[in-house]
Write a structure and sequence with these properties.
mainly alpha, 1 helix, transcription coregulator activity, nucleus
Length: about 100
């Protein structure tokens, strides 16, 4: 009769961390950050240029959001002014005493 396991065996790289509980400093160091060009889905990127591009697009989105808020505030003020003029024109005049 053959024995079977409910789970597959762990991947072989688990041996890199066998002694981690005894000595946490035994784990290998992470690789250094990417510096220079790299390829992603066939296109070449630079880490620094990508970061600058992301920041510039974020700044542009924030500027656009601020402009939208200013425009909506001006429209609301205009509508409020028109509403007040309409209410003022429909106000019944009080008899003079």
């Amino acid at each position: 009769m053959a024995t079977s396991s409910a789970y597959p065996p762990p991947p072989p790289y688990y041996r890199l961390y066998e002694d981690y509980e005894k000595d946490p400093s035994s784990a290998s160091e992470p690789p250094p950050p990417v510096d220079g060009p790299y390829q992603l889905f066939g296109a070449t990127y630079t880490a620094r240029a990508t970061l600058i591009h992301m920041l510039e697009s974020q700044i542009q989105r924030r500027k656009q959001a601020i402009e939208d808020i200013k425009q909506r505030r001006e429209e609301a003020q205009k509508l409020l002014g028109e509403s007040l003029l309409i209410l003022d024109g429909n106000q019944p005049s009080l008899p003079a005493m």
